[in-house]
Specification:
Layout: E1 4-6, E2 11-17, E3 24-29, E4 36-41, E5 45-51, E6 56-63, E7 69-71, E8 76-80, E9 87-92, E10 104-112, E11 117-126, E12 134-137, E13 145-153, E14 165-173, E15 182-184, E16 188-190
Parallel strand pairs: 1-8
Antiparallel strand pairs: 2-5, 3-4, 3-6, 4-5, 6-7, 6-8, 9-10, 10-13, 11-12, 11-14, 14-15, 14-16
Amino acid sequence: AGDFEAPKGTRITLQATTLEPAETVSVRFGDDAEGQPLAVAQGREISGAFVVTGGGRWRFAVTTPDGDTQVESAPRRIKLEPDRAPEVVLKLPDADLELDDLRDVPVVFEARDDFGLSKVNVVIALAADPDHPEKVAQPAVEGRRYAGDEVIDLSVVQAQPGDRIALFVEAFDSNDVDGPQRGVSTTRYIT
C-alpha cells in the first residue's frame, strides 16, 4: 500500500484522506526532515504531486491543528524502473557482402524500446572513415516497435572500388529526462 515502481521523471499524483484533522501535510523522502508540502482541504483531504528522481523511501508527515507532528512509522518504497537503450536487429543483410559494383542493397531491420522510440537511422560509412557517416532517417518513428525495409544506395558514401563500407542501424529512445539513449545493430561490411 503505497509502494510503487516507476521510471525516473514520472510525475506521481497523490490524493488521500488523513485519519485526523491536519493543519499541514508533507511527503518526506528518505531522512528529509522538511519534506514536500501537500495541499490540505477541509482539514483532512490532501493532494499534491512529486516527480520521481530516484529510488528510496517515502512517508507522510502530518501536523495537527495543535502543532503536533506525526510521521508515519512504516515508510513506503519507490523502486526506480530502469529505462533500457533500444534493441536493434539487422535482418538483412544477414552477413557481410562482397559486391562486384556499388549497387542498391536491401536493408531490413527491427527496433524496439521499453518506453518508446524517437528516431531510427540506417547508417553507412566508409570503414576507413567511420566519423563521417551518411544517415538515412526513417519516417514516422513512434511507439515501442519500428520495422524497416529500405533499399540503400551505397554510392552516397562516395566509395571507390575496393573500399570497405560499414552498414548498421541506430535507434534512439524517447527519454526526455536524462536524454535519448542509443541502441545499435550488428555492423555488416560490404566490399
